[in-house]
Design a protein that fits this description.
One of its GO terms (biological process) is protein deubiquitination. It catalyses: Thiol-dependent hydrolysis of ester, thioester, amide, peptide and isopeptide bonds formed by the C-terminal Gly of ubiquitin (a 76-residue protein attached to proteins as an intracellular targeting signal). The protein is mainly β. The protein contains five helices and 18 strands. It has a domain of about 150 residues: Cathepsin B, Chain A. The strands form five sheets. Strands 3, 9, 13, 14, 15, 16, 17 and 18 form an eight-stranded mixed beta sheet that branches. The longest helix is centred in the last third of the chain and has 8 residues. It starts with a strand and ends with a helix.
């Protein structure tokens, strides 16, 4: 992927001083290319509302909204102890398998918090062509992915448990695994879970032809 980084002046500085600093080379946008093992998808801050029965309403977000981080245009501010940066990301190559890590956990000095936002995602036919830079789109014949595994975290961050949804490729059936227990699961139930890590498989030419047949 390409990573574009731009240093920001300290927010408390006077406007004139900020404008001067922005002219310096240190504050110009820089680009580096990097390999990646997985893509981290950031969840929006989750305000928990209560309905008229005082029950919590858990927010939801579409997968494509959090994938926008990698469209080459979406900017996000990153803060370090001393400095602030604006970053944006753009994919330049799509591998046969993609791993998404949905960032549910944030740590501070005292405890770990978990974001319970539900991510709405399709099980099949997720096209990632728009996240590639224009000049490399032509080199990618296939940019469509299907989900093959979904790891879920249930419960509190410190004492929760994990479940895994796995696609059996031969039959097209989904199974849920937890410890030694294996059960069938309907695909539509997978999308209701607090997905944490997902593995997606790129469709190859013969699979694309079967879909079109």
């Amino acid at each position: 992927m390409r990573i574009f980084t731009k240093k920001l002046p300290h927010p408390d500085l006077p406007a004139e001083e900020k404008a001067q600093l922005l002219q310096n080379s240190e504050y110009q946008e820089m680009m580096v290319e990097s390999t990646f093992l997985y893509l981290t998808l950031d969840l929006p801050t989750a305000p928990l509302y209560k309905d008229e029965k005082e029950q919590l309403i858990i927010p939801q977000v579409p997968l494509f909204s959090i994938l926008a981080k990698f469209n080459g245009a979406t900017e996000k501010e990153y803060k370090t102890y001393k400095e602030n940066f604006l970053k944006r990301f753009q994919l330049t190559k799509l591998p046969p398998y993609l791993i998404f890590c949905i960032k549910r956990f944030t740590k501070n000095n005292f405890f770990v918090e978990k974001n319970p936002t539900i991510v709405n995602f399709p099980i099949t036919n997720v096209d990632l062509r728009e996240y590639l830079s224009e000049e490399v789109q032509a080199a990618h014949t296939n940019t469509t992915y299907d989900l093959i595994a979904n790891i879920v975290h249930d419960g509190k961050p410190s004492e929760g448990s994990y479940r895994i949804h796995v696609l059996h490729h031969g039959t097209g059936k989904w199974y849920e695994l937890q410890d030694l227990q294996v059960t069938d699961i309907l695909p539509q139930m997978i999308t209701l879970s607090e997905a944490y890590i997902q593995i997606w498989k790129r469709r190859e030419e013969d699979e694309m032809n079967q879909q079109g047949a």
